[in-house]
Amino acid sequence: MDGDLRVKLARIAKGLSQEQLANAAQVTRQTIGLIEKGDYNPSLSLCIRIAKALDKTLDQLFWEEEPK
Amino acid sequence: MKGPGFGMDERTRSIVQRVCAVLYVLSMAALWIDLVVREFVLGLPVSGYDDIAMIFTANVLLFIGAVLYYGVVIVPRIRPVKLAAIYGVMVLLGTAFAAVKHGSTSVYAILGHLRIVAAILGIMAAAYALLAYVGHRKIERRITS
Questions:
Q1: Is the pTM of this model over 0.80?
Q2: Which of A55, B20, B54, B77 is the most exposed place for a label (fewest CB within 10 A)?
């Protein structure tokens, strides 16, 4: 599954809006929107903040398996 | 939960940094063109715009210094012979430029330019080498600590 879509699904599963996730990760709502769309590559520290806010690991949200 | 400070997060900061970098280069280029036009096209006296020239020069020199200090550009190791050759060529070019600009034809005047250019370039090279060395050491210390 697309890593960016996983962020969106995890956020919805946790019942958070983009705004709430943005506040938890200390970024703007637009940045979360762009990450979910795959139009912005977040830094490692932001990935960690997002993962913590969504109670997920970095692997679960951002790791991409190599196609076999 | 607190949001990004001043409405800036890493994405917006990166955009602002890119915009500032592009505008800085454009401003410096425009300033340089302005100086060249004033001096060589309009033939205006230097005293009329030497403050602008000083700001431009200081800006460019500080920019190069900061780039070297923060290790943005990794300067390759250059052998002393090659370094001396580069320095010699720069001194000759600088002297030729100064001689043409001031219309100097006598050997005495050209040697005078040579001395000044060699001293300025020598001080600049030493200062930049020191900055690059100090910056490099600082980064290495942070890595190893």
A1: no
A2: B77
